[in-house]
Amino acid sequence: MAVPQPLVLLIEDEPQMRRFLRAALDDGQYHLIEAPTAREGLAQAASRNPDIILMDLGLPDGDGLDLTRRIREWSNRPIIVLSARGMEVDKVAALDAGADDYLTKPFGVGELLARMRVALRHATLAASGKEEPEFLEGDLRVDLARRQVFVRSQEVHLTPLEYRLLQTLVHHAGKVVTHRHLLKEVWGINSIAQTHYLRVYMTQLRHKLEVDPTHPRLLLTEPGVGYRLKVSS
Amino acid sequence: MNERRPDPDLLLAQVREAEGRATRGKLKVFFGANPGVGKTFAMLEEARVKRVEGVDVVVGVVETHRRVETEALLTGLEILPRRPVEYRGITLHEFDLDAALARHPAILLVDELAHTNAPDSRHTRRWQDVEELLAAGISVYTTLNVQHLESLNDVVAQITGIQVRETVPDAVFDAADEVELADLTPDDLLRRLEQGKVYFPEQAERAREEFFRKGNLIALRELALRRVAERVDAQMRGYMREQGIREIWPAGDRLLVSVGPNPASARLIRAGHRMASRLTCEWVVVYVENPAISLSAADREALVENLRLAEELEARVATLQGRDTADEILAYAREHNVTRIIIGKPTHPWWRDKVRGSLLDKLVRGSGDVDVYVISGEVEGEVPRRLPSPSRASPLKEYLWAVLVVTLCTLGGWAGLHHLTVTDIAMIYLLGTVVVSSRSGRGPALAAVLVSIALFDFFFVPPYLTFAVSDLQFVSTFGVMLLISLVISGLTVRVREQAGFARERESRTAALYAMSRELATARDRSQLVDVVRRQIGASFGAAVQLLLPDEAGSLAPPEGQAPAYPLDDRERGVAQWVFQRDQSAGLGTDTLPAAKALYMPLRASGHLVGVLGVMPSDPRRFQDPAQRQLLEAFADQVALALERMTLEQQTQQSQVEIEAERLRTALLSSLSHDLRTPLAGITGSATSLLQDRSMRDEVRRDLLQTIVEEAQRMNRLIGNLLDMIRVETQTLVVQKEWQPLEEPIGVALIRLDERLQGREVQVQLPPDLPLVPLDGLLIEEVLINLLENAVKYTPAGSPITISARVDNQSIVVDVADRGPGLPPGEEARIFDKFYRSVGAPPGGGVGLGLTICRGIVQAHGGRIWAENRPGGGAVFRFTLPIEGTPPTLPPREAVAETV
Question: Model pTM?
Answer without folding.
Answer: 0.48
